[in-house]
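Entry 0007
Protein: (Mediterranean fruit fly) hypothetical protein
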Amino acid sequence: MAQPVVQMTAEQLQSLIESVRLAAVAGASSAAPATIHTKGSFTNCTSRFGGQRDHEAVEEFITSIVTYKEIESISDEDALKGLSLLFYGLASTWWQGVRKEAKTWGDAIALIRDHFSPTKPAYQIYLEIFEQKQEDSVPIDTFVCQKRALLAQLPEGRHDEETELDLVYGLLDIKYRKNILRQDLKSFRELLEKGRIIEHNNLESEAVQGGPVRGMKRTKRCTHCNFRGHTFEECRKRKTASAGDD
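Output (structure tokens):
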């Protein structure tokens, strides 16, 4: 038996197509996982600050939390509210007393710097730079890093790299200045590369000198009593035995 042919008008067909399309869209929407938007916070931030008055420690802490804030997309308002989570000890006590002064995130960062790492006058920084020359046991990487950290505390634009090299070069241990001419240096990178080569060569030289030296005089050993420090002819034990036999 033949199936009856269903006839539809153009309007009915268009309505059917639209109904199917809407049903498909609704089904896809319900199947898609819901996206949960959460606010960023310092809850999982591992950086902590206890109130030590140390320029490097303060800058390291600030750099760490500013970077974390950007990565986690924490708003200034939420960052300001959660900043207390990162303090302990003296810093926590200090923050309780000054937090009302921090109206913005920028205010909070400025307060931390002003209280725990106030800007040193330039003359004091220069005194610290020239206070100590490089000791023989201090690697060039460590020494240059320390001096450049001090130079970075000077007002911005005070010296170019050429001038900073002049300041640091004169403080280097003589073993570097003997092998590296100042006029051959254009950057700190070149200084460090040449300095590492000198350190490597010195280590090799010390290793060779610490080994057995060819031609070194051997310690005397007696063939009679087998003790070191004398020969067979000098052996008192042999002479005593010989005298007894006589």
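Curator remark: The chain is about 55% helix and 0% strand. Residues 55-116 form one domain.
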